[in-house]
Amino acid sequence: MSPRSRAEAAAGSVPERRDVYERLADELRQAITSGRYQPGDRLPSTLELMERTGVANLTVRGAYRMLVEEGLVESVAKKGFYVRRPSAMTWRMTPAARGRRVSADVLDGWAADVEAAGLAHREEISVAIEDCSEPVLGTPVGERLGLKPGSRVLVRRGIRYTGPPEGDLPATADSLTDEYYPYDLVRDSALASPGPASPVEALAGLGQRLRGHVDELRPRLATTEERRLMSLPQVSVVLEVARTAHTSDRTPVLVLHQVRRGDGATFFYEISYPGR
Fold it and tell me: What does the alpha-carbon distance between residue 62 and residue 46 come to, in Å, rounded to a whole number?
């Protein structure tokens, strides 16, 4: 066979194989969207599909790769392919204080929302000192906190995990969170160590009682690092939240920056109108 003939044959085989795995992907996609396979269900193995359809291993894997990239399917090492579980969380972004003392749940209701969904949770926290030029939703965190250029901020970075109430929690994260504080304000407080600490209580102990916050929200595509940390598909939408908390005189003392999965999640706000 001449070089040209080989090239033409190769060029013809690629679309043919693509047509086959696209048809197989369509078949599996229909089975998932119709409810035949539910979230968490194990899908047929590559060997099962090869025997049933008579196609090659590469073709079956090509079909599964398409579904993984679409976010419908996830690959579990040494176990196979499963229907991806979307985030079914309801995130209550502004839980009402209802006349009670301001608590951590008012500022960040992550733990309360996870428990309300019947799930277990854990959080890995690290602490760092950084320059206040770090951007949050495109605005330097120092500007959000009213700091002078060159000032330092203390950052508490959290990776948050959720899972079934029984058994080990999954190794993949549910959401990411960063808390930024003026370093000179909190450097001697419990916030300066990676252990559990309530920002509301710690700031109150420093004479900075929180009296409200302002939110900025932006849906966007997840970055490469966010996809890696949260095991997200190649194309995934996340909700990015910048919550700036302030004292009674409107002095900002904390920027809470969160990135949460957007697939299947509901973000709930409760707004109260002032009485006449």
Answer: 10
